[in-house]
Amino acid sequence: MKVALITGVTGQDGAYLAEFLLNKGYIVHGVKRRSSLFNTDRIDHLYQDQHENDVRFFLHYGDLTDSTNLIRIIQEVQPDEIYNLAAQSHVKVSFETPEYTANSDALGTLRILEAIRILGLTEKTKFYQASTSELYGGLESNKNEKGLYDENSEFYPRSPYGVAKLYGFWIVKNYREAYNIFACNGILFNHESPIRGETFVTRKITRAAAKISLGLQSILYLGNLDAKRDWGHAKDYIKGMWLMLQQDEPQDFVLATGKTYTVRHFVDLAFKKVGIELTWKGEGVNEVGIDKSSGKEIVKVDPKYFRPTEVDLLIGDPSKAEKELGWKPAYDLEGLVNDMVESDLKLFKKDQYLKEGGHETLNYFE
Ligand code: NDP
Ligand code: GDR
């Protein structure tokens, strides 16, 4: 049985990947952070009572900022494959916590690679690095002849997150060349799902569409509605990560859909799915999304969500992954939006039911 170690197992991608690898028969170890509240919601369905026989899913406390911890876990686990998905992954938050973001996202990657080297695992352990389309920074001049970003496009990161991930990208490449480690960068464009973190724009929108349609929220405040992203489904993208580590040679690959849409378009689709048609009025900070049937303003712009430097447009070229990995995403944008909205509707119908039944949330501070 192959053994995999996933950092960031409690995150969106970590949860999908853990399930995917368990279904493939792997023994899966995950690194989770200590937190004052439970942070394992996304993987609770995979948990097995550790006293049972044939347990194949294990969790270890750890942190990418702690080398000794990483060395100990990797020594204990002796993984065939490491998927480094842990990161301070929020671009806007990286402007507020730039040093921590560099420590976890840049140096954290180095710490794992060093652990592989120190423990003499350079020939045994394959390594996947969660690199990102944020490396391109959305510069027009970086695109290829098809008008897309590919594995040869130049990088120009536009946030402390992007810059930290740039270090991660290059240190992976360097350790591959210097020590022959089977290490790959997956340059992944945005990928979303029903378990996407609630402060990323897609999930913020699908939650709000569900809540507004159920009478649980009145207004959705957003930042830059003109930003364009190449959005795919996380379920498709984690398969690509695994495929990269099953090749004969380690290489870097772009995973993307090759299509790009504005945030505004995503909002339109999500609200349409809950039966609300929007019409847009005004410009810039004064732009509003109006519910056509009620005339109410339900989407507004709040400049607090603007970023000091923005990545205006991202669109990726997945040709290499299609050709060499046989990777092809199953979801299109509409399929993704439907999956997310349906899931959030289910989630908030429960809240609505409790509210209607007079069951208010417990207030511990009264
Ligand atoms: P999430 O934010 O959902 O998950 C991040 C995970 O990393 C969580 O498990 C989090 O733990 C953990 N983590 C954060 N900081 C540390 C740390 N210092 N030590 C250990 N664990 C830590 O991200 P995604 O699942 O969406 O993304 C996975 C990876 O892929 C990230 O590296 C991200 O930067 C990258 N990426 C994501 C893309 C996307 O569109 N989703 C696109 C391209 C790259 P906790 O649950 O405790 O917060
Ligand atoms: P991104 O994702 O920065 O692309 O990083 P996010 O969903 O945060 O933003 C996408 C675009 O939407 C605009 N936007 C808003 N964003 C948020 N979060 N909240 C808002 O209210 C809002 N309004 C408009 C943003 O300005 C931006 O242009 C994600 C992360 O998963 C990274 O870890 C990953 O590397 C990249 O995708 C690829």
Automatic annotation (TrEMBL):
Q: Which cofactor does it need?
A: NADP(+)
Q: What GO MF annotations does this protein's record show?
A: GDP-mannose 4,6-dehydratase activity; NADP+ binding
Which EC numbers characterise this protein's activity in its record? 4.2.1.47
Q: Which part of the chain is the NAD(P)-binding domain? A: 5-340
Q: Which GO terms describe its biological process?
A: 'de novo' GDP-L-fucose biosynthetic process
Matching CDD domains: GDP_MD_SDR_e
Q: Which reaction does it catalyse?
A: GDP-alpha-D-mannose = GDP-4-dehydro-alpha-D-rhamnose + H2O
Domain of life assignment: Bacteria
Q: Does the keyword NADP apply?
A: yes
Which UniProt keyword terms apply here? Lyase, NADP
Q: Indicate the enzyme's highest-level EC class.
A: lyase
Function description: Catalyzes the conversion of GDP-D-mannose to GDP-4-dehydro-6-deoxy-D-mannose.
Q: Which family does it belong to?
A: Belongs to the NAD(P)-dependent epimerase/dehydratase family. GDP-mannose 4,6-dehydratase subfamily.
Name of the featured protein: GDP-mannose 4,6-dehydratase
Whose protein is this, by species?
Parvicella tangerina
Where is the organism placed in the taxonomic lineage, from the top? Bacteria, Pseudomonadati, Bacteroidota, Flavobacteriia, Flavobacteriales
Gene name on record? gmd
